[in-house]
Design a protein that fits this description.
Elements (H helix, E strand, L loop, with lengths): L5 E4 L4 E4 L7 E4 L2 H21 L19
Length: about 70
């Protein structure tokens, strides 16, 4: 499965979350580390949902950028 992730830069690190998997988050010192950690978090999140007998949400979020004149 391929899930959209959102990575945000903070003052001290990076954080990431998965819109289609509420509660699935990760933080890291670099963007690359954060991407790796969110991949692991997604796998663990889905594994936990399976163990709990919960349905696994299909990826449905889309990411697009729009140009805005400033």
């Amino acid at each position: 499965m391929r899930y959209a992730i959102v990575i945000e830069k903070t003052e001290t690190n990076y954080s990431a979350y998965v819109p289609d998997l509420p509660g699935c988050v990760a933080t890291g010192k670099t963007q690359q580390e954060t991407e790796h950690l969110i991949q692991e978090a997604i796998a663990l999140h889905i594994q936990g949902m399976k163990e709990d007998g919960l349905p696994i949400p299909e990826p449905s979020s889309q990411v697009e950028y729009v140009e805005v004149p400033v």
